[in-house]
From TrEMBL:
It holds the Pfam family Ribonuc_red_sm. NCBIfam families: PRK08326.1-1, PRK08326.1-3. This is Ribonucleoside-diphosphate reductase. The keyword Oxidoreductase applies. Its EC number is 1.17.4.1. Keywords: Oxidoreductase. The keyword Oxidoreductase applies. GO terms for molecular function: ribonucleoside-diphosphate reductase activity, thioredoxin disulfide as acceptor. Coiled coil: none annotated. GO terms for biological process: deoxyribonucleotide biosynthetic process.
């Protein structure tokens, strides 16, 4: 636990000190390294050109439009969800006196807001003004269970009880599953569509930029769950594994596979992608049991798969 920076009194909250003017920031912490990369790779959703996407959209079949709109809707709502639900994690880091984490997480939240904006701008450019809620509820009950219930429940519980156990459950849900499995699987589906048919260059660029940001977000989650397990032991490991398996079970039990998929996709494509991502995240949790505090402190962005240059598909 770092030195607390806030003091809660009956008459209100006061700052005890500011790290910037007392001991200074530790630029070598993992969160600060991510923060510096995020500044360098800044991008603006308002500057993405969707004019060619609008022409491509007109050429798609009804089934293709519905399928693509389904994925876009899941991402659009999901990005708004993670932008909102990260707030208790920031508060937890403030309470722990981890200013470097707070600085990075505020950038993190800003990026999630940009992601929601980018998908909304895509829909606006196509003049899609319908209520798309059905894609995030009735059509995808697994999504409704996780994004409408599980994610906010575990994140906002931190406001009441920010214990290491609850923090581990929150990070496992937010960073390792929502971002590290659900979103990552969606990126692969998007890229299959864009690359195989050479369509939607604006949305393709958007997805690549978002995936670049998300590589930092997932890396932060990997860093944090590893630190929690190293500092608190096997009980935290068990909590993380239990929550991760719970989320896997929710998706497996509530997913409704489509009999026929457009864009040359198959059910096996999605299942295999998700399986690989699940195994990768479980490996992260299991590896933490064998790590030392010194190894956690020495993490580099490259070690945790952070994309350090923007790479756009041609």
């Amino acid at each position: 636990m770092k030195e607390k920076l806030l003091e809660f009194r009956s008459e209100g909250v006061i700052h005890k000190k500011f790290k910037a003017t007392s001991v200074g920031y530790d630029w070598n912490t993992f969160p600060m390294k991510l923060y510096q990369i995020g500044k360098r790779l800044f991008w603006d959703p308002a500057k993405i050109d969707f004019s060619k996407d609008k022409e491509d959209w007109k050429k798609l079949s009804k089934d293709e439009k519905n399928y693509l709109l389904n994925i876009v809707s899941l991402f659009m709502a999901g990005e708004e969800a993670v932008a909102v639900d990260i707030t208790p994690l920031i508060s937890t880091m403030i309470n722990e006196g981890r200013v470097e984490d707070v600085i990075y997480l505020e950038q993190f939240a800003f990026e999630e807001a940009k992601h929601a904006e980018a998908f909304r701008r895509f829909c606006d450019s196509l003049e899609i003004n319908d209520d798309l809620t059905i894609f995030t509820t009735e059509y995808n009950p697994w999504y409704q269970k996780i994004f409408y219930e599980e994610l906010p429940s575990v994140m906002w519980k931190l406001r009441v009880d920010p214990s290491p156990e609850n923090l581990a459950v929150a990070v496992t849900t937010y960073n390792l599953y929502v971002e590290g499995v659900a979103a990552e699987s969606g990126y692969k589906t998007f890229k299959h569509i864009f690359n195989s048919l050479n369509i939607m260059p604006g949305l393709s660029k958007t997805v690549n930029l978002i995936a670049t940001d998300e590589s930092r977000h997932i890396a932060y989650g990997t860093y944090l769950i590893t630190r929690l397990i190293v500092e608190n032991g096997e009980s935290i490991y068990r909590k993380a594994i239990e929550q991760f398996n719970k989320l896997v079970g929710i998706v497996q039990s509530l997913t409704r596979p489509l009999a026929k998929l457009p864009f040359g996709l198959t059910p096996d494509f999605t299942i295999e992608n998700r399986k690989q991502l699940v195994n990768a995240r479980l490996t992260v949790i299991e590896r933490a049991l064998k790590m030392t505090p010194e190894q956690v402190k020495s993490f580099s962005p490259k070690d945790l798969g952070v994309i350090e240059e923007i790479k756009l598909d041609k």
